[in-house]
Predict the 3D structure of the following.
Amino acid sequence: MVHPLDRRPSPGGSVAYDGDTAISGVPGTAAAIVLDFAGTEGSACGALLPTGRVRDVIDGVEVTCVDNGMPVVVVRASDLGVTGDEDPADLGADDRLRDRIQSLRRHAGRLMGLGDVGNTSVPKTTLVAAPRAGGAIATRTFIPLRVHDSIGVLGAVTVATALLMDGAVGHDLAELPAPGAPMSIEHPTGRLTSWSSSTTPPIGPRSAGRASSARPASSSTGPSFPALEAPMAPMHEIAHMAHVELLTPEPERSLWFFTEVMGLTENGSEGESVYLRAWDDYEHHTLKLTAHTTSGVRRTGLRASSREALDRRVKAIKQAGYGIGWRDGDPGLGPTYVFRDPDGHELEIYWESEWGTRRLRSWRRR
């Protein structure tokens, strides 16, 4: 979960609005407002470096996959045949480039644990090049295939974090500031200033980021939410919380703990994961342990109360804008729909389940 903390000058207990901080594209200047973001590392993917590596090669192109508040694939602009200084409209009109970006992000999505990202907005793809306007790096960001006129706050924090990692894509192109000094990220319409507390690749511990703004906080009547088509009371639609997947950098010790100390029963393994079942659980597994570079909760499973309930909840999730997509279920489970809640926690929902040693009931997702 990302927790922003707003810091602004307040001499004598009164907010000072005057200052020389400017936002690109906004007339005038004002006092700087620094946003401190805590708990940003791995907010969507479970780790700052979701693939476990500072650099990967996808489709023959070197990339850095990083998540410090926003999943981003960092790519050298020159590796895709562009300079990184183009107008967003020109980049967006390049069908060949768009196809390459889509291929990169779909492959990266799987490596980052995000599944099929073909119809989602993350990960974002940021092309980097040597700075041209006095900043640390020049950027062009695709969200997912539309070129952004600037760069998002958390996207800038994530890119800045990547640039500080020795060996990451863009590190050798960047004009890095002195340790602790702000980093200016160039984008098509100006620059955005960011700080990052990460100076080494912190795959495990949480890192934090900051971004500055020069606009006084505006008033708001409260959050708005998407209207659901024919909403219905969802009680009785979710039967129970079914299982949880934990990431562990010490798989053997974790397996020993949950079997010998907690008394769960091992019920199979697949790839880097081991499935464990509690004594009175009627389903295939209660806990999924997955070897990883860091610890954390990757995904929580919910079971629908019926096939029809699953269909209705998936429809509601899609309408609310939090859907990720269908995937094959884990052993003992049928088709599973993956989604996120508003805080970015990843969950999955399914209906078809193997009860004890019974055969999996046949059901084909519509």
The chain has five helices and 18 strands. The first helix runs from residue 88 to 92.
